[in-house]
Amino acid sequence: MKKIYVLDTNVLLQDPLAIFSFEDNEIIIPAVVLEEIDSKKRYMDEIGRNARRVARLLDGLRELGQLHEGVLLETGGTFRVELNHSSVLTLQKQFLEVTSDNRILAVALNLQEEEKMAAAPRPVILVSKDALMRVKADSLGLKAEDFLSDRVVHEYSSIYPGYEKRIVASDIIQNYYAQRKLTLAENFPKVKFYPHQFLVLKDECNPSVSALGKVDGDGRVLEMLVNDDDPIWGIKARNVQQRMAAELLLREDIPLVTMTGKAGTGKTLLALAAGLYQIEDMQRYKKLLVARPIVPLGKDIGYLPGEKEEKLRPWMQPIYDNLDYLFNTKRPGDLEKILAGMGSIQVEALTYIRGRSIPGQFIIIDEAQNLTKHEVKTILTRVGDGSKIVLMGDPEQIDHPYLDESNNGLTYVVEMFKEQRLAGHVKLEKGERSILAQLAADLL
Question: Is the keyword Metal-binding assigned to this protein (predicted)?
């Protein structure tokens, strides 16, 4: 049975091509949605770009016919801008204020009432990214759904972790240590492994005996880690996932590394240490570029005085805190002198990365969970020849209004690149900042 989908504004602002995601059903946009999109088109951020893209898309659809009468989409469904059914009388007992949200609800509710009178009534479904909008719809007896087509995974718990634990026979571990590699097809038939995936092998007879290895770029052979367990720029891996991360960060043949994990798991510190080691000691890269999106936690602090570096300092303070630790500075101002003397470290806001080409650099993008798919594509396409880029963040801590743990840019890259030999990923599990920080991450 065909359905009628009424789209909320936030669905189109999240994915301008959302109208093509509903197969052969009827897609309806209330007129008030056009008003809301029009109010966003002047924004100079991702929301504004998507609003302008929606406007161009709808303008192109006019060539197919009158939008208020409905046009046929390439997916087999129909699209219509609803000018009628906007009376809010059906809502006034429950929601008195005539807001844009209530006007969208009124259109969906009135369409549902009309369909009940038809010979073959079709279900009317409101699609919204706003949880409270879906709750209000449900209280009115209107079916509501989240827009899930933009998700690469339906649940964050199912995201690719980058490693796997396997219980194996004792002789498999013995052969692995003796030959320093393991043919996966012979020992794990019919099991698919991803390039640069880590395996933790546990002896079935003696769980205290284990082995750690990394799948090669072709996904066929389990190999010993190339980099030993020595400290990197004074930082030593404290757990097995940090050893995995260090391996990926130090491998020149893996230009894209993604790391996820809760606060305090060591993502930023490990990445900075690996970058400094390869720039200053190995001279593998020319410069270390560290950037993060400017998204405030809580109420914004407004405009800041001073030059660009002074304006960025509050946003980039977490990076400077880690650099203070790595350089073991004692007095205020010491870090600035060190960075000025080195000249190989650049701390930047992602706002300034568009249009650049960045060759021969070690690039760290912190808090990448606050990036959209479009923004993360923009960043990755800036990476020049001979560069390595590290994307990291905690998908469970998102400050972007239209993103969640399953549809953000970081999760998107992890899932889309897991089968590529140029990329490696690891999820850090154990917090190493302090016992209190780990307990807070688990309980709160």
Answer: no
CB atoms within 10 A of CB 337: 11
Q: Are 369 and 395 in contact (CB under 8 A)?
A: yes
Give the contacts of 54 (CB within 8 A, at least 6 positions apart): 12, 13, 16, 37
Tokens 């003796």 locate to 178
270/396 Cα distance (integer angstroms): 20
Backbone angles phi, psi at 349, to 5 degrees: -90, 145
Among candidates 60, 378, 422, 426, which has minimal Cα distance to 240? 426
* More confident of the two residues 325 and 134: 134
Residue 218: Cβ-neighbour burial (10 angstroms; 0-12, 13-18, 19+):
exposed
CATH of the domain at 346: 3.40.50.300
Whether 32 is in a domain gets the answer yes
Count of domains for the chain? 2
CA distance 76 to 435: 56
Instruction: For residues 146 and 403, give the distance between their C-alpha atoms in angstroms, rounded to a whole number.
Output: 12
State how beta strands 4-7 and 26-30 pair. parallel
* Residue at which a domain ends, from 111, 145, 179: 145
Q: Is residue 172 part of a domain?
A: no
Alpha-carbon distances, residue 365 vs 144, 203, 319, 371, 414 (angstroms): 36, 38, 11, 10, 14
Final residue in a domain of this structure, among 110, 125, 145: 145
pLDDT at 347: 79
Domain range for residue 55? 4-145
β-pairing, 361-365 with 388-393? parallel
Residue 85 half-sphere exposure, CB side, CA atoms within 13 Å?
Answer: 21
The whole-chain average pLDDT of the chain stands at 87
Where b means 16+ CB within 10 Å and e means fewer, 63-102 reads eeeebeebbebeeebbbbbbeebeebeebeeebeeeeebb
Adjacent-strand bridge partners of 428? 261
The 10s digit of each residue's pLDDT in 337-388 is: 777 777 788 877 776 676 678 899 999 999 999 898 888 998 999 899 999 9
pTM of the predicted protein model: 0.78
Residue that the structure tokens 């600035």 belong to: 336
